[in-house]
Structures are given as C-alpha cells and as structure tokens.
Design goal:
By secondary structure, the chain is α/β, with parallel strands linked by helices. The chain folds into two domains: about 210 residues, Alpha-Beta Complex (Spore Coat Polysaccharide Biosynthesis Protein SpsA, Chain A), CATH 3.90.550.10; about 80 residues, no CATH class. The protein has eleven helices and eight strands. It has an eight-stranded mixed sheet. Helix 8 runs parallel beside helix 10 and helix 9 packs across helix 11. The radius of gyration is 20 Å and the shape is globular.
Length: about 300
C-alpha cells in the first residue's frame, strides 16, 4: 500500500534559550501550511524558566523540538537542526524575533525561484514595547543598492549582510558544500552567510519586509557577556577568517575594518591578550605591521585615546 510522502519546501530553524514567551511569539508568526516544517533546538534552557511539559511548538504537527543539553550556543543548535532539515529552502529565525504578515505570500512566490539565496528587507522594533528601532537600516540599504544596480551592490549584499535572518537559502547548496555555523557565543552566522553567498550561482532580493528583528537589552548581541575575553577572541577569529577569505578569493569590498576595530577594543590591561591575538593573526597570514597600522587608524577614527591600546 502506497503512502503519501509530505513534500517539505521550507525548513524554519529556531535556536532557543530561556525565552519561552518570545519563542511562542515567533512560532505563532509562522503560518500553518502543509509544505513547511519548524525545527526548534533548545540550548540547555533552565527548567526554572522553561516549562518543558508545555514547550512552545509542541502542539503543532509541523514542529519538531530538540532538547540539547550541551549548551553549545545558537550556532551549535543551528548545526543540529541542519542535520534534520528536509526542506528545499532553509529559513533562520532568532527566538526573540518574528515574521511579518506577508511571510506566507513570500513563501508561495519563491518556492520555485532559481536563485540559491534570496535576500529580503526587515523591520526592527523594541521587543517589549514594539516601538520602532533602527537595527535593520544598514541591512536594508544593501537590498536597495542591489536592486538599484549600484556599483558593487551585489558584492555588498553577498558579503556584508552578515546575518542569517530575513533570507532564503537553498538547502542543496548548504549540503553540497558542507556549510555550517561557527559555534561561537556571538556572530556564529557570519561564516555560514558568506560561504552560502560565495557558492550561490545566483542571488535575488526583494523590497518586502519578511522579518522583524527586535531590540532587547538582554539579548546576546547587547548583553555584558559579550565583553568577556573568550567571547571577543571567538569573534576576532570569525572576522579574521572572513577577511582572509575575501583576500584569498580576490573579493574587493571597500574599507573592511571590522577586525581592526575589534582588536582596538583591548585596553592597556589586556596587553598580553593583544599580543597573543597578534601572534595568532600573523600565523594565519596577516602582515603584522600593516595590521597594527590599521588598528591604530581604527582607534583614531573611533575617537578613542591611543593610550588605551598599550
């Protein structure tokens, strides 16, 4: 007897940790449809905060909840979900964000799109008050540059829009090249995004706002944990590999200065950490005198005191 096999066009991946109410909001913004699956990976949440017997999404037939006890961060959670994804397209969301009402229409329109990555605009609001915020303005400007045919508009869209949300990724490209997320506390999606863009034969973009990226003081992007040395070293490693990738593949973007700014944030008390990082970067292939000069220039441009570096 033959059984019908569900066709999954879209897999939506959501990592989660300790914000079940916001996760519920995110899941509720996703339309119920037969060609969609949701994979939520819980990153070792606290049982005092999360009611695992009533975990968000468990009541939906299209949702799989994976409880991971490693506590490896959002990148690790996303990699776990990638192994289970069955959809033709991959869609990523943060648990404190949500999708816009036009999301279902977009899914209908782009299911057979020839592009390997599709970029959309996003809006931004305060997570609690829902008042407008400006978090996505820079991301949206890249879509505008691409659609207007601006010089290097496509390069900037592919390689400088370094977030996984508000995009569609062909699963076939991700699987063919074994693209994964970095398992760092911050910026775990940078490598995934630029490698997917690099291997994409064609990209497309739309003016529509598919997604809402919220602002929240306690989020990973803005909380105090982000200033820990181990976190900052992980971020520096991510952007060092990013700059080397651009250089080795002769991808010329104007004024890529993220790495010098990150290094320039270390103060006098961090002299040994700074030297350790410089040795590692030189071993990776950076020219030390040139990198030091770029760090100094980044500090000057940011109006920091030069005394804070050494």
């Amino acid at each position: 007897m033959e059984t019908d096999v569900k066709v999954v066009n879209y897999t939506i991946i959501i990592p989660h940790k300790n914000i079940p109410t916001l996760l519920r909001r995110c899941i509720d913004s996703i339309p119920l449809r037969d060609d969609l699956e949701i994979i939520v990976v819980d990153d070792n949440s606290d049982c005092g905060i999360v009611d695992f017997d009533n975990f968000p999404g468990q009541e939906r037939a299209d949702t799989t909840v994976i409880l991971d006890k490693k506590g490896g961060g959002a990148g690790h959670a996303r990699n776990i979900a990638l192994e289970r994804a069955r959809g033709k397209w991959l869609v990523f969301a943060d648990a404190d964000d949500f999708f816009m009402p036009c999301f279902g229409e977009i899914l209908d329109e782009y299911v057979d799109c020839e592009a390997d990555v599709v970029y959309f605009k996003a809006c931004s609001v305060n997570s609690e008050t829902l008042e407008p915020a400006s978090r996505t303005a820079w991301q949206n400007s890249m879509v505008d540059d691409f659609l207007s045919g601006k010089k290097k508009g496509e390069l900037r869209l592919r390689y400088k829009r370094q977030v996984a949300w508000s995009k569609l990724f062909k699963t076939e490209i991700v699987n063919r090249y074994g693209i994964k997320f970095d398992e760092t506390y911050k910026n775990n999606d940078v490598t995934f995004v630029y490698l997917a863009a690099f291997h994409a034969r064609k990209v497309a973009a739309s003016n529509r706002e598919m997604y809402c990226a919220t602002f929240r003081d306690s989020s990973i992007t803005y909380n105090r944990q982000s200033n820990r040395d181990d976190v900052r070293r992980g971020v520096i490693d991510v952007f060092a590999r990013y700059e080397l990738f651009l250089r080795n593949n002769k991808i010329r973007l104007s004024k890529t200065r993220q790495l010098p700014k990150l290094l320039g944030g270390y103060r006098l008390s961090d002299k040994s950490v700074y030297r350790e990082l410089m040795r590692k970067l030189v071993a990776m292939g950076f020219n030390r005198p040139r990198l030091v000069m770029r760090v100094w220039l980044a500090i000057v441009r940011s109006r920091f005191s030069l005394r804070h570096l050494w």
